[in-house]
Amino acid sequence: ELKVEQNPLFLSMQEGKNYTIYCNYSTTSDRLYWYRQDPGKSLESLFVLLSNGAVKQEGRLMASLDTKARLSTLHITAAVHDLSATYFCAVHMNYGGATNKLIFGTGTLLAVQP
Amino acid sequence: EAGVTQFPSHSVIEKGQTVTLRCDPISGHDNLYWYRRVMGKEIKFLLHFVKESKQDESGMPNNRFLAERTGGTYSTLKVQPAELEDSGVYFCASSPLLGPGWDTQYFGPGTRLTVL
After folding, report:
1. Distance (Å, rounded) from C-alpha B53 to C-alpha B48?
2. pLDDT (0 to 100) of residue A11
3. Residue A98 confidence (pLDDT) above 80
4. Structural domain that includes position A12
5. Do A42 and B33 touch (CB under 8 A)?
6. In chain B, which residue's Cα lies nearest the Cα of A49?
7. Domain boundaries, chain B
8. Homologous superfamily of B5-98 in CATH?
9. What are phi and psi of B66, to 5 degrees?
10. pLDDT (tens digit per residue) in A19-38
């Protein structure tokens, strides 16, 4: 059974600082996702990473994927208050098309302090 | 384009009662998924519809849960009878079979279910 470990669970940052959220997973997968959730809102898709070495950037967020290490990172550069949210990584499971589910990490609650 | 919508946003019921959650996917999305997050745990997969057919229901916890998607449009998830451990947030997601966005699941805001 695929397991996804995400850390840290909670991250309190000062504005302007950099930090990284880590996502490890236990078996091979063809896709990894990062989602953001604001309280009471939908999970918003941030990045889809498809291949080894993939790097995607949007504003102050950059996600990368190392399929050999089964590790993805979400790097936050010069944090601002608007980035405060819960961030989830999710790994895609697809066994020969029989399933198409996502296995989620526990989420990281990010609080950016002024 | 409207996103995935879920109704109700909150539901508070007593143990033993029945609750039905509804999900309206993005128009044209043939894939529909149900997930839930119980307190302090990960978001976990419940089941996956392709149109009106159940493609994967491996995550359904027990036979108190019944999901339907008649006509391949909206879906309902019924819990009968509800137990305390069913409390949590139930998310619905959808995606197209082909074309732009095929590789992303688009989530609704969830239904927060509290069983007392």
Report:
1. 9
2. 93
3. no
4. 4-113
5. no
6. B103
7. 5-98
8. Immunoglobulins (2.60.40.10)
9. -135, 120
10. 999 999 998 888 999 999 99
Query: How many domains does one find in chain A?
Result: 1
Q: Which residues of A touch B55 (CB under 8 A)?
A: 98-100
Residue stretches of chain B with pLDDT short of 50: none
> pLDDT digits over A36-94, tens only?
999 989 999 999 998 888 999 999 999 999 999 999 999 999 999 999 999 999 999 87
Name the amino acid, one letter, at B84. Answer: L
Q: Which of A2, A36, A42 to probe the B interface (max B CBs under 10 A)?
A: A42
Q: Is the pLDDT of residue A95 over 70?
A: no
- Residue-wise DSSP of B47-88: EEEETTEEEE-TT--STTEEEE-GGGS-EEEEESS--GGG-E
For B103, the closest chain A residue by CA position comes to A48
> Which 3 state secondary structure label does DSSP give A5?
strand
Beta-carbon contacts of B37 under 8 Å, excluding residues fewer than 6 positions away, are B43, B44, B88, B89, B91, B110
